[in-house]
Structures are given as C-alpha cells and as structure tokens.
Amino acid sequence: MISPVRGIGVVLCAMLAACSSPAPIGRSVSESRIWDVRAARFVGESHLVAALAAARYRLLGEVHDNPAHHDLRARLIVAIAATGARPAVVFEQFDLDRDTALQTAQVTGADAEELAAAGGLDRKAWNWPLQKPILEAALAARLPVRAGNLSRPELGGDLQAAIDKRSDAAWYARFHAARWSEAQAAALRADIIESHCRKLPEAVVPRLVLAQRVRDAAMAQALVSDATGGGAILIAGNGHVRADLAVPVYLHAAGLADADSSSVSVGFIEATPEEERTRDFSRQVIADHPGFDYIWLTSPIARDDPCANFPVPAARSGVD
C-alpha cells in the first residue's frame, strides 16, 4: 500500500515530468536559463528551488500569454512541495470575494476545472487553460488555493472613495503603512503608460496607478492572511511581483505583521538565445526588468504586435 505522503510524491513526480512543454520559439523550456540577480550569475533550477523553499513568501511572475511561464511555475510548486513545505497558493486571477467559494470547492474535492469555476475565473481574459497546470500542481500537493485580487466593482466609480470605504480592511492599513517615494511613483507611472502602448489619456493614468497600488496591497495582505506554516506563494504577473514597486513593498511595510519575513521574487522574461549572446546582456536585462531576485529567461512566443490594434481608452476608463 502506498502511504498518503508517498502517494503525493508519486503524483508530483509525474507532474514534474509533464510540465516540460517546449517554448514555441528558439529553445525548449529545458534550455531556459535562470539569472541570480544578487550573485550576478546563471544558476541551476535546484538553486532557485532551494532559495524559494527557504523563503516564507515566494512571488512568481509571468508574461500572461506565455504557456512556458505557467508550466515553469507549476514545476516550481511541485518542487517546493517536494521539500515538505505546504504553502498556500494565492492567485491574482481570483478575486477576494470568491475566496470562500474557492475554499468550499477544495473541501468537496474539486478538480482544476471546477476550482476555476468556483473562483469565477475570467477564462477569456486569463487565457484559460494556461493556468490549469498551476492549479493541478497545487491540488496534487494538497496546497490551499486562495484568492488575492480586488474585483473591478470594488475599484469602480470614484476610486478614492471606494478605497476609503474599505478603511476597515487589513489591506487598507498595509497600503498606507508602506513607504512610497516620488521615484517609485514615477517608475510605476512610466510602466503603466508603456504597458498600455503609450495610448492612455493623461486623465486616466493616475487612476490606474492608484488601482495597481491598491491591488498590490491587497495581494500582500492575502499572502500574510492566508500563509500556512509553510508560508505562501503568489501567482501573478511580472508587474505585481517586483520588489521595488509592487507586492513586496506592502508585504514588508514597517510595523505590520510579517514585515521582516523573507521573500523571493522571480520574474519570467522572454529573450531569444541571440539576445542572450549580446554584450552586456545580463546588465541590460536587469536594467529593463528591475525588482526581481531571480530572472528566468524563456523564449518569446509568436504573437501579433499587441499595440497594433490597441484601443484608445476613454478619459473616464475603468480600472484594468
């Protein structure tokens, strides 16, 4: 008879092998490389897993439509669980108002498809089933899957008024406790303008900056609130896991719970092998993608120019 613990291990090992789908352009996932920013060198996957296992909070980014990034994050969840850790897995893709439904679904033995439904996943917006391997990995390891994001209705209308109405929420205190400089504000503003193809009306930008900050504070609070003895993992876009501008800023807000706990941020960045061979590539990739402890380089996928048909938002556009 296979013991429950050993049974989980068998499932995890099978999933580890299954999460090695090839990247579409240039090289396979097995040929992707991991840059340790602090050590300024390439490291093996086992090195990254050890760093993640040792941290209380692990923040795993992505380019949303790159399948390799989802597969690799599933693989990391498998590897972290194989160390014996049982962290909660908090998803940007699930809104906090669906968290109870997510927990109920897990108690009743939901599979990944059923869990996505319980969490109200916007399958079109999030390119489902790209996240399915991540949910399957978490479920196979019996890790709690939790919601981390604020919903559009919560951030609708007068955004500042909507935020102030939630002054009793734990994330509200975390938002206000975090240090936020003019340099950080300028950097986040520039990122949001660039990510919207430089087509945002000027009047919309401050609202989107504020919405991004509030969502980051909410995800930071979800990590702290949902953490098990094994800590927590955040599944989110690269922009949300940056240590200089995003969730870690609020996670480590002075004077609040777990402010001094360790965290590791991993950015998943697209680069061709030819780009990697250029002079000063490592310096350039850090300059272009700051705020990560590790950068996992994968091949870009074939996609149309996202800015070619980018709609120009109205001046009173809602929150992205």
Overview of the structural elements:
The chain has helices spanning 4-18, 45-54, 67-82, 99-107, 112-118, 132-140, 159-164, 170-177, 182-195, 205-226, 238-241, 247-251, 273-276, 281-288; strands at 33-36, 41-43, 57-60, 88-95, 145-149, 232-235, 263-270, 294-298. The chain is of the alpha/beta class. It has one domain (4-298): Rossmann fold (3-Layer(aba) Sandwich). α1 (4-18) packs antiparallel against α3 (67-82), α3 (67-82) packs parallel to α6 (132-140) and α9 crosses α10. The longest helix is centred in the last third of the chain and has 22 residues, at 205-226. The protein is globular.
As residue ranges, the low-confidence spans are 1-27
Largest β-sheet summary: 8 strands, mixed
Number of strands: 8
Overall SS class: alpha/beta
Order of helices and strands: HEEHEHEHHHEHHHHEHHEHHE
Radius of gyration: 19 Å
What is the overall number of helices?
14
Overall pLDDT score:
89
Shape: globular
